[in-house]
TrEMBL record:
Annotated organism of origin: Jejudonia soesokkakensis
Parts of the chain that traverse the membrane: 7-25, 31-52
Keywords: Membrane, Transmembrane, Transmembrane helix
Keyword check for Membrane: yes
Keyword Transmembrane helix: yes
Name of the protein this chain belongs to: DUF1328 domain-containing protein
Length: 72
């Protein structure tokens, strides 16, 4: 999910600019709905990135600690 963060960000920004500028056209409600969905995807992607990096750091720290114990 981390690799889609930039894609969600770009889609969110473009749909927000199209949907919430006040222009009236057919499909503006669809654009706003797409903006909402891409924003949710962006938030999930960002949270996934943060949570997985914490797990990875914790696992690396545990592995280093175990390696130090084995060497001693």
């Amino acid at each position: 999910m981390k690799k889609y963060t930039i894609h969600f960000l770009l889609v969110t920004i473009t749909t927000a600019l199209l949907g919430f500028t006040g222009l009236e056209f057919t499909g503006d409600s669809f654009i706003r709905f797409t903006c909402l969905l891409s924003f949710i995807g962006l938030m999930v992607s960002c949270l996934d990135s943060v949570l997985l990096s914490r797990k990875k750091r914790k696992a690396n720290k545990a592995a280093r600690t175990e390696k130090i114990r084995v060497e001693n």
